[in-house]
Design a protein that fits this description.
The protein is an all-alpha fold. It has eleven helices and no strands. It has one domain: MetI-like fold (Orthogonal Bundle), CATH 1.10.3720. Helices cover about 80% and strands about 0% of the residues. Helix 5 crosses helix 8 and helix 8 runs parallel beside helix 9. The termini are far apart. The C terminus is likely disordered.
Length: about 280
C-alpha cells in the first residue's frame, strides 16, 4: 500500500524586501497626498466661493467675488497699508506666544512634578478658561493702556493655557520605568530633562504649540478690536466703518493665511526635531 506524504510549504523570507519596499512606497504616497490636501482644499473653496457669488448674484457689498478680493489685496499691498498692519499684528502675536511659552513651560514642568500644587491650582486655572478673552481684554486695555504691551498680554493670556496643559500631559505621559532607569544610571536633573523628558514630550508638546500659535493671532486681533489703531483687527474695523467689504475680506484672509503659515512652520519644525517617528514608520 503506497504511503502518501503531505509536505508542508516551506516558510521563506524571500518576499521580505519586497514587502518593505511596498511599505515605504505606501508611506511616501501618503506623504504626497498630505502635501496635496491643502492646495486642493484651497482651490475647492475658491471655486465654490466664485460659484456662490455667480449663482446667487450677490452684490460686492454683501459678498465680493474672489477676483474682486484679489484686486483689493493687490491694491492694499501696493499702498503698503496691509503690510504695516500685518507686521504689527504678527509682532503682538509672536511676542505674546513667546511670553506664554516660557511661562507655560516653566509652570507646567513644576506642576507636572508637584501633584499637590497642581491639585491646588487646577480649579483656578480651569475657572480662568470659563471667562472669554473678549470680556477680559477691556480690563487689560484699561490697566495697561492702548499700547502694544496690552495686546501682547492679551495674546499671551489666551495662549497660556494650551501650552501649560500640553506640557503637563506630555511630561505625565512619560513611562515611569524610563525615569527610574535614568535615576539608577546616575542621571542628574539636567540629564533627565535633556535625554528623557524633552525628547519624549515633544510630540505632545507640539500639539499645544500649534494650538497656541493659532490662538495668539486671535488674541492680538481681539486686543486690536477693543482698542487699537494699527493691526489687522484695526484694519477690519476701519474697513467696516468705510463699508469696504472687500478690504474686510483681505484682512480676514490675510490673518487666516498668516495663521496657516505659522501652523506649517511648526509642522516642519516638528518633523525636524521628532524625526525618529518617521524613521520608525519607514523601517
Amino acid at each position: 500500500m503506497q504511503q502518501i506524504v503531505i509536505r508542508q510549504p516551506r516558510k521563506t523570507t524571500e518576499n521580505a524586501p519586497t514587502t518593505m519596499r511596498r511599505q515605504r512606497a505606501a508611506w511616501h504616497r501618503h506623504r504626497a497626498m498630505r502635501r496635496l490636501a491643502l492646495p486642493l482644499t484651497l482651490i475647492s473653496v475658491l471655486f465654490f466661493w466664485q460659484m456662490l457669488v455667480m449663482i446667487g448674484g450677490y452684490a460686492p457689498f454683501t459678498l465680493p467675488s474672489p477676483l474682486l478680493v484679489l484686486e483689493r489685496f493687490i491694491a492694499a499691498v501696493r499702498s503698503g497699508v496691509l503690510l504695516g498692519h500685518l507686521v504689527i499684528t504678527l509682532t503682538e502675536a509672536l511676542a505674546g506666544f513667546a511670553l506664554a511659552l516660557v511661562v507655560g513651560l516653566v509652570l507646567g514642568y513644576i506642576l507636572a512634578h508637584t501633584r499637590w500644587l497642581e491639585q491646588a491650582l487646577a480649579p483656578l486655572l480651569a475657572a480662568s478658561q470659563a471667562v472669554p478673552i473678549i470680556a477680559i481684554a477691556p480690563l487689560i486695555i484699561l490697566w495697561f493702556g492702548t499700547g502694544i504691551q496690552a495686546k501682547i498680554l492679551v495674546a499671551g493670556i489666551i495662549t497660556f493655557f494650551p501650552v501649560l496643559m500640553s506640557t503637563i500631559v506630555a511630561l505625565r505621559s512619560i513611562p515611569r520605568e524610563l525615569r527610574e532607569m535614568a535615576l539608577i544610571s546616575g542621571a542628574n536633573r539636567w540629564q533627565m530633562v535633556r535625554y528623557i523628558e524633552l525628547p519624549l514630550s515633544l510630540p505632545v508638546l507640539f500639539g499645544g504649540i500649534r494650538t497656541g500659535l493659532a490662538l495668539a493671532t486671535t488674541g492680538a486681533v481681539v486686543g486690536e478690536f477693543v482698542a487699537g489703531r494699527d493691526g489687522l483687527g484695526a484694519l477690519i474695523n476701519i474697513a467696516r466703518g468705510l463699508f469696504d467689504t472687500p478690504l474686510m475680506f483681505v484682512a480676514i484672509l490675510t490673518l487666516a493665511g498668516v495663521t496657516l503659515l505659522l501652523y506649517v512652520l511648526v509642522n516642519i519644525l516638528e518633523r525636524t526635531l521628532v524625526h525618529w517617528e518617521d524613521e520608525r514608520i519607514v523601517q
